[in-house]
Amino acid sequence: MAKPKHTQAHLSRTVPKNQSEFFKNRTRESMTYYMGAKLIEVGVNPKKTIYRWKTEIKGDKEIITVSAYWGETREKIEADEQF
Question: CA 40 → CA 1, 16, 32, 47, distances in Å?
Answer without folding.
Answer: 25, 30, 12, 10
